[in-house]
Amino acid sequence: MATEVILPQQHTARAILTIAGSDPSGGAGIQADLKTFTAIGVYGGAAITCLTAQNSLGVDSYLPVAPEFVTKQIELVLADLPVSHIKTGMLGTDEIAGAMAEALHGFPGEVICDPVLTASDGHDLFHETTENTGLHALFNIATVLTPNLPELARLTQHNLETAREALAAATSLLARYPKLRAIALTGGHIQEQAAEVEDFLILRQGQGAEIFSSKHARVNTRNTHGTGCTFASAFAAYHLLHGNDQDAFFKAVAFVETVLRQSAGLVLGKGKGPMAHHLFRGTV
Ligand SMILES: Nc1ncnc2c1ncn2[C@@H]1O[C@H](COP(=O)(O)OP(=O)(O)OP(=O)(O)O)[C@@H](O)[C@H]1O
Ligand SMILES: Cc1ncc(CO)c(N)n1
């Protein structure tokens, strides 16, 4: 006998649009984003900025989509679907970042930017210009940024090693962009040998910032391909469902940790394997 499916109302009312690169191996990029949205129970669309050729062993190369075609994808989706949240990932070029900022100008909802600059194997995923005008234009309309430690270091041009240094840099980055309400700093690369991982939420509070953190055991696994994309997408999805930064942050941390744990035994790929979003059951 077929089971009746009852959809909670918020699932049909709003959607997330990810604007990011494609990873054909399915571990990162729009593939990870869409799997995350589905696992959490939120509808997602995907506009593609770049095609990448990569697998679990690393990134070989990438092909940027023409900026006008990125614009067209965004405009058509926004004209049709009830998108309340945008999540951005790999941009590829500063021209694409600029086209995205223009297409999103006046967008009234959340713009959660994961500033993907370099893949974990060191392959550059963003072709910088001297001014990075497009990147700054995008950050000017962002409401939340989700950098990891190396990304924060590159954005603030500081050499960052400790959590203390990273928090000072994140607070200064927060002050730079007017619409930015929060920075979720992921801690996978802070003290990489430590037994625990700590992620931070830096929330704008008047002229300063309020800091929250979440510490959990480091999962002993090599299946960490796409953790950054998954974290930012989970933040966007939980923000859609719960409407505030703190719930979005703590639930996104718990989601990534849970999926990493459930994926630890998975043997997929010859290198850093993907997370098993498809095994996620229940809630965090
Ligand atoms: N081994 C681990 N065990 C538990 N949590 C982890 C582990 N590695 C990363 N995380 C979690 O994954 C999320 C993303 O962290 P991280 O800083 O590694 O992102 P990233 O460097 O952008 O990822 P990527 O490898 O996709 O570039 C954070 O919530 C972090 O705590
Ligand atoms: C498409 C894409 N986005 C992001 C990352 C970073 O994990 C990656 N490797 N590939």
Folded structure, characterized:
The structure is a single chain. The chain has 284 residues and is α/β, with parallel strands linked by helices. It has one domain: 3-Layer(aba) Sandwich (UDP-N-acetylmuramoyl-L-alanine:D-glutamate ligase). Helix content is 37%, strand content 24%. It has nine helices and eleven strands. It has helices at 9-13, 29-40, 67-78, 94-103, 133-141, 149-156, 163-176, 227-242, 245-263, and strands spanning 15-22, 43-55, 58-64, 83-88, 92-93, 110-113, 126-127, 144-145, 182-185, 196-205, 208-217. It has a nine-stranded mixed beta sheet, sandwiched between helices. It has a two-stranded parallel ribbon with strand order 5-7. A hairpin with a 2-residue loop joins strand 10 and strand 11. The longest helix is centred in the C-terminal third of the chain and has 19 residues, at 245-263. It is globular. The protein starts with 8 loop residues before the first helix and ends in a 21-residue tail after the last helix. The mean pLDDT is 94. The site of 4-amino-5-hydroxymethyl-2-methylpyrimidine has 16 residues, from strand 1, strand 2 and helix 8.
Quick rundown:
The protein is an alpha/beta fold. The chain is built from nine helices and eleven strands.
CATH topology: UDP-N-acetylmuramoyl-L-alanine:D-glutamate ligase
- Total of helices: 9
Query: How does the helix and strand content classify structurally?
Result: alpha/beta
The helix content is: 25-40%
**Major sheet size, sense and barrel closure:** 9 strands, mixed
Oligomer: single chain
N to C succession of SSEs: HEHEEHEEHEEHEHHEEEHH
| Corresponding CATH architecture | 3-Layer(aba) Sandwich
The gross shape turns out to be globular
- Give the N-terminus to C-terminus distance in angstroms: 30 Å
Strand segment count: 11
The tally of domains stands at 1
CATH superfamily: Ribokinase
